[in-house]
User: What shape does this take?
Amino acid sequence: VVNGWLQIPNSFSAEVMAKQGWDSLTIDMQHGVIDYSNALQMLQAISTTDTVPLARVNWNEPGQIMKILDAGCYGIICPMVNNRVQAENFVKACLYPPKGYRSFGPIRGLLYGGADYGDHANNEILKLAMIETKEALSNLDEIMSTPDLDGIYIGPADLSLAIGQKPGFDNPKGSKTHTEILNILKHAKKNKLLAGIHNASPEYAQEMINTGFNFVTVGSDQKFMIGGAKECLGKFKKNKTKENKGY
Assistant: This one.
């Protein structure tokens, strides 16, 4: 799965991204500048395409998880999952009884998923726990053996901080963070879970796919905007330098 990332709180930019052919798009409610009302409109924009709408919530908080699911989100990436209890609480917030304690009221979920949404939601909502803390590294199998957890997602920046490294993405082979990433992947495979990771470049994301990851995120709407603008302006600056040399 090639996943796109949305940090800009705008339905039109979300629609533009959704039209580009991503398998899924994740609305970042943790580090993006997006609140619930923004996210709702962004979900409406994404639903004009076949792109699967996901969200990263800002914390393992049941109310927020349930509310964004009710808005029509079809998967949750939950940050800072440290142990089995936290993993269980996260999963249960995504599931209706008897498996979980999600309250029933999918106000927009019914519009997006259809009248039988409630019959299938427990089997269709994707639940990814982020592995990115020192405590989580000590509890990998306990977290990953949580019933009904679908997969894990690695945030390389926080993972780097957790092991005493500078935060960053696309960590080179042989680095301490890369070694930990491979260890987390090994445990995910052992527990038959999907394995996802955040990447800065498509080249590195492809390396991660070749390594065994099922779910890769590349860049974000904000980074694509910055990159495109810099590339354009860089050409003008380059031409200006040539002109100055000609005098």
Remarks:
- The mean pLDDT is 96.
- The longest strand covers residues 126-131.
